């Protein structure tokens, strides 16, 4: 697969995960906890897909296939890390809204 496509996939999956996490918080605020938890699960699935693409790149590099460092790759990594953190915090928010 073309490296640029892999990188764009990481960005898209991460963006979708972050959007799902944000939407989960909004549903939790409305006491729609079941829907919020579905969205957290969706975010986790999106992040798994992004992480799988990242792992593939890491394995390629471990086999000696060097990945050219580009601004787009750095951007993808930033999206993945941010989305992961955001999903984790959203899960905590959903749990808190469920308790109150």
From TrEMBL:
GO biological process terms on file: phosphoenolpyruvate-dependent sugar phosphotransferase system
InterPro entries membership: PTS_IIA_lac/cel, PTS_IIA_lac/cel_sf
Keywords (A to Z) from UniProt: Coiled coil, Magnesium, Metal-binding, Phosphotransferase system, Sugar transport, Transferase, Transport
Domain of life: Bacteria
Pfam families membership: PTS_IIA
Needed co-factor(s): Mg(2+)
Cofactor note: Binds 1 Mg(2+) ion per trimer.
Transport recorded as keyword: yes
Ranges in a coiled coil: 26-60
Active-site residues (renumbered): 75 (tele-phosphohistidine intermediate)
Phosphohistidine: residues carrying this PTM: 75
GO molecular function annotations of the record: metal ion binding; transferase activity
Amino acids binding Mg(2+): 78
Name the UniProt record assigns to this protein: PTS mannose transporter subunit IIA
């Amino acid at each position: 697969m073309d490296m640029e496509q892999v990188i764009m996939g990481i960005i898209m999956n991460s963006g979708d995960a972050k959007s799902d996490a944000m939407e989960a918080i909004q549903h939790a605020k409305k006491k729609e906890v079941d829907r919020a938890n579905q969205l957290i699960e969706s975010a986790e699935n999106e992040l798994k897909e992004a992480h799988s693409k990242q792992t593939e790149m890491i394995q390629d590099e471990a086999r000696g296939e060097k990945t050219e460092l580009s601004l787009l790759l750095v951007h993808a990594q930033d999206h993945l890390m941010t989305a992961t953190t955001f999903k984790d915090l959203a899960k905590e928010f959903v749990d808190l809204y469920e308790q109150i």
